[in-house]
Amino acid sequence: MGTTAEARPVRPGRRLASGARRRSYLLITAALVVAFFLVWDWLTSSGVLHRIVVPPPGRVFERSREIISEPYFRRHLWVTVKEVVFGYTIGAGSGIALALVSARFKSFRHLLEPYIVALQSLPKVILLPLIAVWVGYGQTSAMIIVVMVSFFPVYLNTITGLLAADENGLKLLHSLGASPRQAFRMYRIPSALPLVFTGLKTSVNFSVVAAITAELLGSRYGLGFMLANSGTFLRIEDLYATVVVVSLFAGAVYLIFELVDRKLIFWREDRNRFRAEERQR
Questions:
Q1: For the chain, what are the domain ranges?
Q2: Is 177 left (phi over 0), alpha (psi -120 to 50) or beta?
Q3: CA neighbours closer than 13 Å in the CB half-sphere of residue 100
Q4: What count of Cα atoms within 13 Å lies in the side-chain half-sphere of residue 95?
């Protein structure tokens, strides 16, 4: 009792310390970003880097703003968004569904495992010429690549989370009369959600990269086409600006999933904080 009473008043201070550390990390990150752009601007203004090869950051950001305001950018952005949304939905949904079946039926999991390992280790981009032979270059081939790229991280993280459920918790549910199906639904699936969302966040970044790579290799629409077109005609400022825009797009997509993860898997933060406090004791 004495130990518990002594430990309770310390927790708010620890939370404040944790918040201070988080703010310090953000400040350091922001300072490094500002320093990077200051060095970039100095290198271009001093002539160390030629402005034709590396435009100054101010001009790149200005051109990025101009590109975003153009109607053609919205058309190309919409194409990439459709490829990512449809391909990711099919790939991630299939990964979760197949992982649920694999975790529920052990024989099916062992039957499927060699094929998953073989296909997961195969670079998906090298299949693009073959897919282009089947369906041609364009949105369909890009979506197929996105499906393949997004499937494996979601499947592997989901199956790992489902199989890593605490056996003591399962035994407790069984002792209370829960059937294997009820234990699977009420315990395995909720305990696997943190890893499932980790797979979802990982695969969504891969999906954006896969879609843009497919557009780079052969497409007439999309952000990848904008990159390839700027590079082909040596519009250097447009090339840098498009890279910035694509980076903002990928970052925004990841941020959406990060916010959803924190909102839905709220107990992850509490559990990590509790473990940190236990280690500090």
A1: 1-54, 55-268
A2: left
A3: 14
A4: 31
C-alpha–C-alpha distance, residues 272 and 270, integer Å: 6
Distance CA 142, CA 72 (A): 20
Task: Evaluate whether 181 touches 194 at the Cβ level (below 8 Å).
Answer: no
Per-residue pLDDT tens for 76-120? 999 999 999 999 999 999 999 999 998 888 888 888 888 888 888
pLDDT of residue 162: 84
Contact 124, 182 (CB under 8 A): no
Taking only Cα atoms into account, the Rg of the chain, rounded to an integer number of angstroms, comes to 24
* 97: Cβ contacts below 8 Å, ≥ 6 apart: none
DSSP sequence for 76-115: HHHHHHHHHHHHHHHHHHHHHHHHHHHHH-HHHHHHHHHH
pLDDT in tens, 217-241: 878 888 888 888 888 888 888 888 8
Q: Which CATH superfamily is domain 55-268 in?
A: MetI-like (1.10.3720.10)
**Residue 214 near residue 128 (C-beta atoms within 8 A):** yes
Q: Residue 244: helix, strand or coil by DSSP?
A: helix
**What Å distances lie between residue 258 and 3, 204, 205, 270, CA to CA?**
37, 11, 12, 16
* Confidence category of residue 270, pLDDT binned at 50, 70, 90: low
Global pTM value = 0.78
Q: Please enumerate in sequence order all residues whose Cβ is within 8 A of that of 204, keeping only pairs 6 or more positions apart, or say none.
A: 84, 88, 92, 150, 253, 254, 257
- Give the SS3 label for residue 183: helix
